[in-house]
Amino acid sequence: MMPRDTQLQGAIWGQFVGDAAALGSHWIYDLSKLDQEFPGGVQGFETPKKGHYHFGKETGDQTHYGDGALVLLESIAGNRQFSVREFGRAFVTTFEEGAYTGYRDKATRGTVNNYRKFSGPPERFDFQQGADDYDWRQGRV
Question: Within its chain, how far is the Cα of 94 from the centroid?
């Protein structure tokens, strides 16, 4: 059996590699469109084409999910533990409109907006109250 640390490292690396591999085909669920976009099949690490959510990113880049996972990993490493507040602040700073140039989904935009609209002291914001993301089932992300 592999040591626990090795398993965790593999899971983390796997998440980043998988996210980068899916960048160009991310959210293309219509199989005929997928076949049209990638006639030889999805090989992984494709550059997003014009009109795609992640257009402008390069082969090997992360989606916003991968970028968010990196913010989490850096927050844990910097604090030597998980801190909701430290991660939340780093998340908002990273995904603030104008700071992040990639695609931001509804949940990300909503979390940043909720933080910015909060009228109390920033240290009192409860990052557990991000944003509603119920629209994904209806194709609105």
Answer: 11
